[in-house]
Design a protein that fits this description.
461 residues, mainly alpha, globular
Length: 461
């Protein structure tokens, strides 16, 4: 019995991913009932290990987020609208803890990374089949004949995949896939199967991202990928890369400023529509600063209390086209603080992991690539969220929660695991000096002036 409990806890993250099926396909009441699995798994961990959850740096922010969800429930006016998102948030939090706990128990994080990449590919294929592609990519509409869906994609508005939401998913996945490709290319043994699988996948995902015509998604994925590349190149090239990015952003700002009267975003709402939506969102936040308009409630409230003039009322606004405003609309200003804390904590954890790996000269260790990929994916997600949003609790949002869990798991493995990190080269401090060869050279100690080194994170052979 004890072995069975350990087996279930080992694959807790996979069990929770299976719950996405009823959450995505069944009415929200049945989906909420399926979440009974989550407390049962936590109770099993309490019996087996003596604790309900694995502690993470996100704990305080998550407690505040859950508290604000409870407060927003008091103003919920339509459970059919808010219920699915609330279920998605709780499932996402459970995925974060399961992923972080998987890494803290010393297990490999790469199976979870593989699942994220496979999920991204699967959603890209679903988007290809279930989307409506405008010129010059109308030939992609033939893909719908490969997998006929008479009622469209389940859960999508009108049965059609939103191209902006698909672009947000691709911007999460592409930088991580690029980092995995670079790690595979840098390995001495060359993981040929991984390289052969990743190269066409990256090409396909990049092409589909361009086909969505989401300029925010393309900008986000580009900057996230550049951050991944910057982690691997020498310092002088990082400076060149940084200058190039600043020049490119300056040119982009100048270009968009000269075309302020045109649609520079690339979708039906446009930039002028976004400005109007943002103004209504600010009004709603001012009216409901503590509770928000309820989770996912803005899409109904906006046409009743804050009518739009340039956007037809029959367009279903699934979100405020800005993740910061959307978090405040869903959970109030205290919930926004908790949401921003999750982003800030993630940035701190990734920087700490990157610095520790750099100080230990472990840039060839696979986890260095994982940290770079997570940094690029989260940066891309943040940039995408400035002009669009994948709301908390949305169906594709589980990828974001997995990225946070991987961030916590990788940080623990690199910084606190207590395992040794072997260096590929000697530190300059202990490099042999010019002089008689018979003189003994200092032997590097497992503990130096920088403190004990984590064990076991050795680079690939």
């Amino acid at each position: 019995m004890h072995k069975l409990a350990q087996l279930l806890l080992r694959w807790e993250w996979a069990i929770l991913l299976l719950l996405l099926i009823p959450v995505a396909l069944l009415p929200w009441g049945y989906a909420a009932a399926s979440l009974i699995v989550v407390p049962l798994l936590w109770l099993l961990r309490k019996v087996t290990t003596g604790r309900f959850l694995t502690a993470t740096p996100y704990d305080l922010a998550l407690v505040a987020l859950v508290a604000m969800i409870g407060l927003s429930v008091t103003v919920t006016f339509d459970w059919a609208v808010s219920g699915p998102k609330i279920v998605g948030i709780f499932l996402g939090i459970a995925l974060l803890y399961a992923t972080a706990g998987h890494g803290r128990q010393g297990r490999s994080l790469w199976p979870i990374v593989s699942v994220i990449l496979l999920a991204g590919m699967l959603m890209a294929v679903v988007g290809l089949v279930g989307g409506e592609w405008p010129p010059p990519y109308e030939f992609l509409n033939r893909a719908s004949t490969w997998l006929p869906l008479p009622e469209g994609v389940p859960g999508a508005v009108g049965g059609v995949v939103n191209p902006n939401e698909l672009a947000g998913v691709l911007s999460w996945v592409l930088p991580l896939a690029l980092a995995c490709l670079i790690v595979s290319l840098r390995r001495a043994t060359r993981a040929r199967f991984v390289i052969v699988a990743l190269l066409p996948a990256i090409v396909f995902l990049s092409f589909l991202l361009v086909a969505t015509a989401s300029r925010g998604g393309m900008l986000a994925a580009t900057l996230g990928s550049l951050l991944v590349i910057a982690c691997f190149v020498p310092t002088r090239w990082r400076l060149v890369l940084g200058i190039g990015v600043l020049v490119g952003l300056g040119a982009l700002v100048a270009y968009t400023g000269s075309r302020a009267d045109q649609n520079i975003v690339g979708d039906a709402v446009g930039m002028s529509g976004r400005l109007e939506i943002w103004s209504r969102a600010l009004l709603a936040i001012g009216d409901f600063p503590l509770t928000g308009t309820s989770v996912n409630g803005f899409r109904r409230v906006v046409n009743v209390l804050y009518p739009l003039y340039t956007i037809p009322a029959d367009i279903d606004l699934g979100h405020a086209h800005n993740q910061v405003l959307q978090a405040a609309l869903d959970l109030g200003l205290p919930g926004l603080v908790a949401y921003l804390a999750l982003w800030a904590i993630s940035a701190g954890l990734l920087w700490s992991s990157y610095r520790r790996l750099s100080l230990r000269h472990a840039s060839r260790h696979p986890y260095f690539g994982l940290v770079a990929g997570l940094a690029g994916s989260l940066l891309a997600g943040w940039i995408f969220g400035l002009f669009d949003s994948i709301s908390l609790g949305a169906r594709p949002g589980f990828i974001w929660w997995l990225l946070l869990g991987l961030t916590a798991g990788a940080h623990y493995a690199v910084v606190y695991s207590g395992e040794t990190l072997r260096r590929r080269r000697r530190s300059r401090r202990y490099a042999p000096q010019n002089g008689p060869r018979h003189l003994p050279q200092p032997v590097e100690s497992p503990t130096d002036s920088r403190g004990p080194r984590p064990k076991g994170l050795s680079p690939s052979p």
